[in-house]
């Protein structure tokens, strides 16, 4: 995904999740070996959100593209985030995926809560 298209789709996912009641914590948090697209709070749960864009869902959704290696990188990035943000050290955490398809200016979004577990990585 190109940077411009990626930013558009991530912004749409961000707005969608805020409209659903989540509160933003961080966007595009980069760490050695990984990046977290969105970090949000759902109540007291810290949510690490991976946004995946596909122009078409014809060959599977974006969640299908998150293989074991990508899950490991996301878990390591989440651990680095938690190490640097001690205020969340006791928070419950989960990994969500927002799949986006179609026009990047107005993507169709599908939010998968608890898409995978840290111990799945």
Automatic annotation (TrEMBL):
It holds the Pfam family UPF0102. Gene3D superfamilies: 3.40.1350.10. InterPro entries: Restrct_endonuc-II-like (IPR011335), tRNA_endonuc-like_dom_sf (IPR011856), UPF0102_YraN-like (IPR003509). It comes from the Bacteria. One of its GO terms (molecular function) is nucleic acid binding. Belongs to the UPF0102 family. This is UPF0102 protein E2F46_15680. It comes from Luteimonas aestuarii. The lineage of its organism: Bacteria, Pseudomonadati, Pseudomonadota, Gammaproteobacteria, Lysobacterales.
């Amino acid at each position: 995904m190109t940077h411009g298209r990626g930013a558009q789709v991530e912004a749409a996912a961000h707005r969608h999740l805020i409209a659903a009641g989540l509160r933003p914590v961080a966007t595009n948090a980069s760490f050695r070996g990984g990046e977290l697209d969105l970090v949000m709070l759902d109540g007291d749960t810290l949510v690490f959100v991976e946004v995946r864009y596909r122009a078409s869902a014809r060959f599977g959704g974006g969640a299908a593209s998150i293989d074991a290696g990508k899950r490991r990188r996301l878990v390591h990035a989440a651990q680095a985030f938690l190490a640097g943000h001690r205020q969340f050290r006791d928070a419950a955490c989960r990994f969500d995926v927002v799949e986006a398809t179609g026009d990047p200016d107005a993507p169709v979004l599908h939010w998968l809560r608890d898409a995978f577990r840290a111990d799945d990585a």
